[in-house]
Amino acid sequence: MTIRKIVLRTPVWLLLLVTAALMLFPIVIALLGSFKTNLELTTGATFLPSSWQLKNYVQAWNQADFSAYTFNSLYVAVFATVGTLLVSSMAAYAVDRVAFRGKKLFILLQSFTLFISIGAVVLRPQFDLMVSIGLQKSLWGVIIILISAHATAFFMVIGFFRGIPRELDEAALIDGCNFYSTFWLIILPLLRPALAVVSLFTFRNAWNEYILPLVFSLSRPDLQTLPVGLANLRYGAGAAVENQLMLAGACISILPMLIVYIFANRSFMQVTAGSVKG
Predict the structure, then answer these.
(1) Which residues, 6+ apart, have CB-to-CB distance to 36 below 8 Å?
(2) Which intervals hold domain ABC transmembrane type-1 (predicted)?
(3) Which of 20, 139, 150, 233 is most deeply packed, by most CB within 10 A?
């Protein structure tokens, strides 16, 4: 690399370093804080813990019943992700390959749900709907609502469908496949990079969801998920604020997301590189 290129690229490198530092700083502070005593964390007198309090993690795990919350979060995130992948991929396949009446209206409604995020405004109607089918005290109510918000996944997958030549469908039909077996046997395996990225975002959103699990577990505390259960760590014995336990619990709660990202990272980078190349 020539000196001229080094000089030209130095500002870019500095900008990237500053951006990375700003993004990582809160995570580092939270991680270090999770190993401090409550006094150290409250006073803020030290940057590094004077003694590393590994017991914070043990106490957070036991005190907040993290094993049950983790199971509930995994239950919601896994089924919401699988459901979203199925619904979005099948809907995108039908829209891209079949001409049917109301197709434009369907796409328009999907785009409405994509851009018009009214969040808590629809919480009451969603809850009433789940009451009418008897799922107001079940995590399946949360899962179904999360799957229904699949517009982003739909548009991500349909973009990949348009890159798959229709000649593949025709060849599969000649070989004896029908419309459905062509999707399952031929098309779906080709969508793996897109489905990996969709699963990453869907799992993350379902894992971090707070309002829906909170509402649906008000009468069933045993159904609380990790984001809801983390609030239980705020006050310990004697109603004392114990932020070090909350930080330890927060650090534990991001581990599954890191594992999912590690497995889906390769597909995510492929899709990102493809989008940059255009």
Answers:
(1) 46, 49, 50, 53, 244
(2) 70-264
(3) 150
Can you name the CATH fold of 66-276? Answer: MetI-like fold (1.10.3720)
Residue 66: half-sphere exposure toward Cβ, Cα within 13 Å: 21
Residue 254 backbone phi and psi in degrees, to 5: -90, -10
Question: Is residue 120 pLDDT above 80, yes or no?
Answer: no
- Residue 184 gets which letter from DSSP? I
Q: How many CA atoms lie within 13 A of 149 on its CB side?
A: 21
Q: What is the pLDDT of residues 183-195, one digit of tens each?
A: 888 888 888 888 8
* 209 vs 139: CA distance, rounded Å: 12
Summarised one tens digit per residue, pLDDT across range 46-93 is: 788 888 888 888 888 877 777 888 889 889 999 999 999 999 999 999
The per-residue DSSP string of 67-131 comes to: HHHHHHHHHHHHHHHHHHHHHHHHHHHHHHH---TTHHHHHHHHHHHHH---GGGGHHHHHHHHH
Each as own residue / partner, the long-range contacts of residues 88-92 (CB below 8 Å, 24 or more positions apart, any chain) are 88/150, 88/153, 88/154, 88/156, 88/157, 88/198, 89/157, 89/188, 89/191, 89/195, 90/183, 91/150, 91/154, 92/154, 92/157, 92/158, 92/161
Pairwise CA distance, residues 163 & 218, whole Å: 46
- Position 269 scores a pLDDT of 62
Residue 232 has pLDDT above 90, yes or no: no
pLDDT in tens, 157-202: 888 887 888 888 888 888 888 888 888 888 888 888 888 888 888 8
